[in-house]
Amino acid sequence: MSRLKVQKTYKLYINGAFPRSESGRVLPVHNRKGEIMARAAQASRKDLRDAVKAAEAAQPGWAGRTGYNRGQIMYRMAEVLEDRAEVFIELLRSFGNRKGAAEVEVALTIDRLVWYAGWCDKYAQVAGNSNPVSGPFFNLSTPEPSGVVGLAAPSDSYLIGPISRLAPALVTGNAVVLLAASQQAMVAVTLAEVINDSDVPSGVINILTGSYEELLGWMAGHLAVNVVDCAGASDQLTAEVAAIGADGVTRVIAGPRESESVDWSSPNEQSPLLIEKFTEIKTVWHPKGR
């Protein structure tokens, strides 16, 4: 049968919906041969503000859920990703991965989601503590989410790199605005479809595709953003973002240096120490009764 194939439109993902950029701009996405595969939405400052607003509204509800429930939802993300594994394998092959390498990356990404899902109801017990003090007091420390996290996805990885930074930010109850580079757009938006079908509350994860140089500084300067992870930014851009973030006391997490080569599939890239980067520790004192 002769027919026109329906081409997929790669939009943004904000507050549980897939809008086009308000600016109307698009980015070309090239395959390994340099051919244009698609045109994805190029996020603007207005899109960024909308995503941060959605994350700010959704974060208290996400943090208010039990750790067990957050773990269930993250596990559901892994289930849906497993179900659509072939789609991601073909996407990764389009960008130059061999079939075997693409299959391994997708499998490890699913496993990484499951690994962090398992931490959701355990991290408070590991990172929290009853502290020894001199005096008639209880002194208790407990981890809490930082709030809204802005994340520049690692630019040298299409799938497991972004998940390796997204998943630990979700564990304790943060909401995330993930910024993906133009070449990552097709994988990032397809990942957004997985998230949308995984019971993740609207606004908890928002995905923008666009320019780090254009948007990352504005992200760090937004007073509703509490943490900016510069995992995919250049050394110079990270330094600029840190200077901007200092005005609003925004925590800026530096990613790997440009001279460093990171194997995002390595077990070293999954750790409770990464959860700590997106977590605050609250300590309370309480007098002992007689």
- How much β-strand is present in the residues? 15-25%
Secondary structure: helix percent: 40-55%
Counted beta strands: 10
N-to-C terminal Cα separation, in Å?
A: 85 Å
Secondary-structure element pattern, one letter each: EEHHHHHEEEHEHEHEHEHE
Unreliable runs: none
In short:
With 290 residues, the chain is α/β, with parallel strands linked by helices.
What does it look like?
The chain is an alpha/beta fold and 290 residues long. It has one domain (26-258, 265-287): Aldehyde Dehydrogenase, Chain A, domain 1 (3-Layer(aba) Sandwich), CATH 3.40.605. Helix content is 43%, strand content 19%. It is built from ten helices and ten strands. It has helices at 45-64, 67-83, 85-94, 99-119, 123-127, 160-171, 185-196, 212-221, 235-247, 272-277, and strands at 26-30, 36-41, 129-130, 137-145, 148-152, 175-180, 205-209, 227-230, 251-254, 279-287. The strands form three sheets. It has a five-stranded parallel sheet with strand order 7-6-5-8-9, sandwiched between helices. The longest helix has 21 residues, at 99-119. The radius of gyration is 20 Å and the shape is globular.
